[in-house]
Task: structure prediction
Amino acid sequence: MANICGECAKLDLSNKEKYSSVDRYWCTAGHGYRELTERACNYDFYYDPEKGKKPNEGYTPSGCPITAIICHLLGYSDDCELLNTLREFRENFLKTHKEYLNLLVEYDVYGPEISQKIQLEDKDHRLSLSVLYNYLFPLIENIRNKNYNLAIQKYKLMVNFLLSWFNIERTDLSENMQNIDMTTLGKGRTRAKMFV
Result:
């Protein structure tokens, strides 16, 4: 059974939508007002032990927050071809090559902050459309053509662009990368406390 919004720590039950015929509450992850029984997003779901669900029940969150939030804003589904291609690339290529450890760690450290800023600041979707056409579509095309080095370069350009756009400073993450389990990386889960 999938997780539902009512079980997520990000749903603010004290902030109820005022002018709705159904009970909807504010999602602090930036997904607007949500009903308690709606299927939770798989990239921002955080189990809330106060709401009584065991942490290992349901599916495991495994999204790509930057691309997922852009796709969400532009109306793509969470299981669209673009997101599935990127997830498959992460799981079947990046995680199988130790030299990409730094990319995966960087994504986990900066991805959630970038995603949140996109969600909060890109109201007219111009930034999302720019990232989609200038970075994500070419990146996907390179993956399809098995031009993995070009795909990785396009990914790096996208992250550099977004860090610059939002004035997010990079920090040296290298000294805390020893003994990291690569299978847990690249899903945009915040690791800032561990690295920064």
